[in-house]
Every structure is written in C-alpha cells, then in structure tokens.
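Justification of computing resources. Each target in the renewal requires a structure prediction run like the one illustrated here; the chain below, 161 residues long, is used simply to show the kind of job we budget for.
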Amino acid sequence: MRMIIERYKGYLFKIIVNVVRDEAEAEDLTQETFIKMVDALPDYESKGFKTWISRIAYHKAIDAKRKRSRRHEELTEEFEWQSTPSDSAEDDWLQQQKQNKVVGSIQQLPQGYRGVVHAYYIEGKSYSSIAHEQRLAEKTVEMRLYRARKWMKNNWKEDEF
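Resulting structure tokens:
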C-alpha cells in the first residue's frame, strides 16, 4: 500500500489541484482519494490501475468543487436576505412589507419544511442549532432546506417577491 501511495501521490495531487485550485484542499483530497481507493478495491477490474485511480481523484475533486460552489451560493443567498439600512422611512416600510409577504408565504410550504426554513432564513440560525432545537440530524436539516428551495423554485414566481 505504501508503495502505491508513494508512486501516485504526486500524480494525483496534480490532477486534483488543477480542478480545485487550492493546494491545501488538494492535499486533503489526495488522502481521501487513497481512502476511497481502498474502499473501491473490490470493484477494481484489473484494467489500467493508473486510469482507475485517476478517475477516483478527478471525481473527488469535482465533488469538492461542487460542494464549495453550493456553500458559496448559500452564503450569497443569506447575505442578500439580510436587510441593509436605508435612508428613508418609505424604504424601511417597503422592506418590512416584503419580509412580511415572505414570512406569510412560508406558511404555504409543506409542513416538514416550514420550521427549518423559518429558522434558517428568518432567524438566521445555523444547521447545527436548528438540528439541536428541533431534535433532528444535521443532515436532515440540510436535506429539508434543499428540498424546500426546490419546492419554492417550482411553486413560487420570482416576481411575487
């Protein structure tokens, strides 16, 4: 095993760093690639080891890049939601009306999504605090928010807000 790691670590690191563009993350993903390789060895069909392990590394890097992109989107959405101080009472009133409409619209969501959506977007709580308060697994909170966003995208029109 050590010989395989020594032989391929530099090669896999180059593949991964070209995708993720971050050396520290690429080092971690290279290690994860070897762990994944060990788990996937029973499925290996003896057809080009270097190609097989390269494919594992490439897919690990793509998954990490997608995950980073989703996290960036969530942070951007959260930042856009927070209101900015305005110069006039009219702007404050319009912002408050918009927020009231959104809060009212949350009531249209399926029952399982309302609590996590309100806690995350309106109250600004983290996944872990929502999970703790609602006695759910953190992964369940993440999945409910994902499904709620999908439901909103399919059922609400953008011009309604």
